[in-house]
């Protein structure tokens, strides 16, 4: 094709009338704009939720954190009780109960 023919085709396309826009297109665009505005003006939790991968992932991570915390708390309490029991047994075996007495030396006649 020659350049002149291309120019005439482009001119015909420019001059042709565009088909009418579907009526539902405007409604869809306005609905989408309104939804974006609602997300921007809602509370901070929903705004934060827009960035989160999913609610399920957040709930699962919080549950995992709670279970881990409960496990380590139970483990720590068990270790403390075991250590306390060993200290009491050692104190009794070595007869350190005399240290708890208030009168170590009696100055009475």
Offer a concise description of the structure.
The protein has 109 residues and is mostly helical.
Task: Please provide a written account of the structure.
The chain crosses the membrane at residues 57-81. Keywords: Membrane, Transmembrane, Transmembrane helix. This protein has helices at 3-15, 23-41, 44-51, 55-93. It is mainly α. The model has no long low-confidence stretch (mean pLDDT 78). It has a domain at 54-108. The protein has 4 helices and no strands.
Question: What secondary-structure arrangement, pairings included, does this model have?
Answer:
Blueprint: H1 3-15, H2 23-41, H3 44-51, H4 55-93
Transmembrane segments: 57-81
Keywords: Membrane, Transmembrane, Transmembrane helix
Helix content range: over 70%
Uncertain parts: none
Overall mean pLDDT: 78
Number of helices: 4
> What is the end-to-end distance?
134 Å
Q: Give me the count of strands.
A: 0
Radius of gyration: 40 Å
Shape: rod-shaped
Order of helices and strands: HHHH
Strand content: under 5%
For the biggest sheet, the summary is: none
Structural class: mainly alpha
State the main characteristics:
single chain, 109 residues, rod-shaped, mainly alpha
């Amino acid at each position: 094709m020659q350049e002149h023919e291309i120019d005439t085709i482009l001119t015909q396309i420019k001059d042709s009338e565009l088909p009418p826009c579907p009526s539902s297109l405007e409604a869809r665009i306005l609905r989408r704009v309104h939804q974006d505005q609602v997300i921007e003006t809602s509370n901070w939790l929903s705004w934060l939720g827009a960035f989160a991968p999913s609610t399920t992932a957040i709930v699962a991570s919080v549950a995992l954190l709670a279970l881990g915390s409960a496990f380590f708390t139970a483990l720590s309490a068990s270790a403390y009780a075991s250590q306390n029991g060993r200290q009491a047994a050692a104190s009794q075996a070595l007869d350190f109960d005399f240290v708890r007495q208030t009168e170590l030396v009696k100055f009475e006649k």
